[in-house]
Amino acid sequence: MAEVSALELSVADCLLVQIEAWDGTFEQFQSDLSRTFGIALPATVGETVRQPSLRAIKVAPRRFWLLYDTSGGPSVEVDPDLGALTHLGEGRIRVRLCGDRLPGVLAGCIAVDWRSQAVAPGKAIQTSFHGVPVLFVRTGEAECELIVPRSFSRSILDWLKDSAGGVELEGSDNSGMHPKF
Amino acid sequence: MNSRNKRLPSGGRIDRARPVDFTFDGKKLCGFHGDTLASALLANDVALVGRSFKYHRPRGIFSAGPEEPNALVTLGTGGRREPNLPATTLELADGMAAESQNRWPSLGFDIQSVNGLFAPFLSAGFYYKTFMGPTRRAWMFYEHFIRRAAGLGRAGVDADPDQYEVRHAFCDVAVIGGGPAGLSAARAAATAGARVALIEQDFLFGGQLLSKRTDGGAAAWLATIEAELRGFENVTMMARTTAFGVYDGGVLGLVGQQGNVDPDRAGSPRQVFTMLRACSIVFAAGAIERPLVFPDNDRPGVMLASAARAYLNRFAVLPGKRVVVAITNDSAWRAAFDLAVAGAEVTVADLRPVPASYLLAEAARLGVSVRTGARIARIRGAHRVNAVTLAGPKTQADIACDLVCVSGGWSPTVHLTSHLGVRPIYRGDIDGFIPGALPASQFVAGSIAGQYATAEAVEAGHRAGVEAASFCGKSKPARAPAKLDLRDTVSTPFRDPGSAGRGKAFVDFQMDVTVADIALAHREGYESVEHLKRYTTLGMGTDQGKTSNFSALAAMAALCDATIPETGVTAFRPPYTPVAIGALAGRAVGHHFKPFRRTPMHDWHQANGAEMLEVGLWMRPWFYRNSGRDVNEAYVAEMRMVREAAGLMDISTLGKIDVQGPDAAIFLDRVYANGFAKLPVGRARYGVMLRDDGIVFDDGTTTRLSENSFFMTTSTAKAADVLSRLEFLLDTAWPELRVAVTSVSDEWAAMSIAGPKSRDLLSAALPGIDVSNEALPHMSLLESAWQGKSLRILRLSYSGERAYEVYVGASAGERLWTHLLAAGEPLGLKPYGVEALGALRVEKGHVAGPEIDGRTTLDDLGLGRMAGKRTGFVGDVLRRRPAFQAADRHRLVGLECVEEGQRLRGGAILFKLGEAIQGHGHGRITSVTYSPTLGKYIGLGLFAGDLAIEGTEVLAAYPMKKEQVRARIVSPVFLDPEGKRLRG
Predict the structure, then answer these.
(1) CB-CB contact of B383 with B360 (8 Å)
(2) Residue B489 forms part of a structural domain
(3) Which range of residues forms the domain containing residue A102?
(4) A125 and A139 share a domain?
(5) How far is A35 from chain B (nearest CA, A)?
(6) CB-based contact A22 B738, cutoff 8 Å
(7) Count: domains in chain B
């Protein structure tokens, strides 16, 4: 990762699976996931649950994103009578940022209050970045990730680089490559 | 202090060790760090600084704040040129080059000041009455000259080279106003534990305290509390920052000035627009002094009393040596006393018959002469006041002077509190409007609430700060600040009824609105304040009538014999002060103007000669330069390639939606006009969605992946709208359906291989996959994998040729694209762009955006049979309304040009042959292309159904180019109507 003036920024492919429960089936849906795949789900929208190889994020009342750290994590299946599963691992990229300058740089990008409990470490928020919907995940005191639609990612990264004063991007430790758009 | 320099030898809050050079209308002048442009001009004895809007009357500096109506200047040159800036708010900086405005050839000699002679013809609404004829179009002629004659500064036309920035910020308590009430509120809220943002438009905190002597108690109190606030880690002090708007959800619009000429700001933004989200807000915005209305009250040298005091005590400028202070209240006496102490010869003309005795005693002590019950009847001097005539109850006297200070009381600055629709309420005891009933999260303190006494403002600020913090859940005990009693008194309201006499008595200085204009509006029936405002342009200048509002209300109330509350008040809307467009845009200029979407093959397109086209937010290949010299040559060549061999098209921009669930088929049956429930697994179907009103919404294909899973595609343009629509229907209309819809537009790279050789090259490129007609017939799906990525091949055709849509995981898109091109090269495969794609679909008669334009129905587009007699889908009921069945509704037709060497144009209006070319005709051409297959221009159009008989000739008129060409109505399907090519 490149370090420029206390801001590190890297990009990686985004291993992401969306799962969703039908209305009225959530209890069994959750129980199945926990029993069969060992995945615990967060209770409220914006909450995340960190697990050995993934982070589960509640992005809507019955909808969750499973954000895998690396490929080869536990695969998930969903009983169609209980809910749906959609692979979203190709359509987004994962922008990781950390450093002391992060709150200041992000203030020029997204409306997220770095000091709010709503975005305390471990919390996630869907927000708008230059008019583009992104998922903001606070991963640490001075760390976060942005899950960005792939088609918009170059525009977003350009904006981010300019806001940060010309930080150069490096590819991820996962893929070792620059994201292709 | 010499005769040309009004700077006092000591005092003020300027830094005399840091002189500042600047120019005004090219003349070199000098001020000090800590000056405003206005104070520096006054110090240099510059009295005339501008010309008025309509009459081009000479104007001087009137105030010391953002309410300034007169002293507007232009700063900068080229792209940095910015007009209409109040000199009273511009922090003086080295190299500042200010220009006066609205004058020619010079400020001192302005030709258009002749307008004053024609004043009787230039009254309110004169152009509504005067420029009515002789024809209806005459206004278009007059408008040009009126616009050239009117106006203030002129904006530049060059691109602004400076940077601006938009930022998001958050706090518990936002305090607007850094005067005694605001400082006290911020301190209380911070002590209570709240995160505080203290917002002050000035470059110094203190508000009216800055106008007090720097060696007094006010200055000491200010220094103490400011130091205390700076010591809080939870306080952000935002000087040079104006809160210009209040919006829902506790959002404040702030614009911060970096400084107009600041050598230290290289690389940093010139202005920062901050969207501050606050849990609670304390409004401590103060009050604005009202002027008095009397003949020629706009002459340079007439100034608000509070401004004179500010220039004297804050900037160490004695704005006049012989001063007449014309007032109706106690507060302005303080200005008179300070001016007298500074050495001016002062006469107070108090309209009240009996001012307070302690004021009279102090006046006597300081040698200030006093005339009670007196008002100004006349002003002498053109470019600078040199005398006034004071009219008393019984006597009249001429007094020589070089400065006239006026004060008609105070108007609380209620603008921001009104932005969310809270109407101000009138308080008789202060004869002014204060904020109305605010939401629970908003508080007021100080002069804005009519608490004019400093001690009262400080206490009220403390209370407001505590309450605002408590609203945010912060309630640590906060001790009160040190008392600050300046013994400023609140006088009994005494409204000046105005005076008659020769000369214009201005109510709105900036818009040149006089008492006579208001009287005229009243006579003509414009009695509502909102009508008055629009008829006279009162309050519509850059100052938004900050000094004129109350005077105008009072004048209209008097004319209507009504009270002020009965007369009402105009609505205050954002922005409080003008905001540069650049600040609102921030970084969103140039390549950041909007975010672009790039397909997975974007880089390849650019590297291989694609001319890119913006389609919505997407960047798409328009045509490839190696296909032809320009788009017209290229698209025809690319069409031929597709018709004769094969072409590869990037269609990743199509909207793609994953539809899943046990009720997915039922759901699709309801959202599409044609049925989907019986669609077999592995098959695709073209579908059309209607809006509730029966108009076509969008079209696309949906493929059944499994019993409960579908893959929907939408048009590029409507992708987001369709997803929103589906989510809306699931959430509101049919929440019982177990269906999940998810956009997968970014998941898949998509490419279309079209042409007679498409199957061969696909077989060559993907040898392990059977794409024969038996394995993959038209409108069917094949799922596989390629290099570990999911692969979908859909046999669909938009061009009318045998064609396949190939979908692969986005990260592998470019690899598969180049692989297909390499494999297809021996067969002549090349890429083609959207221009050729659009032309191919016209030949095939497929409708697209130009036809699905929000006005057409299924029947209009010839798709009525898709729905047949089905019911129960969105738009089903209203599509059958009688108006949609009218025989003359415009229906889809094909058109071919019948004149040799001529062409059709999209947008041309269609008329019957021999018909007069006027009006809207009987239809229009929606899409046009040159057809290399047919060797002529062809098009699709919408034409009156009762006239749309195939074989009929019509006239296509294109008035923009004065073209008229004959065309024949034909079937919209120009090519292969049986569909042999696409099914073969």
Answers:
(1) no
(2) no
(3) 2-13+91-163
(4) yes
(5) 22
(6) yes
(7) 7
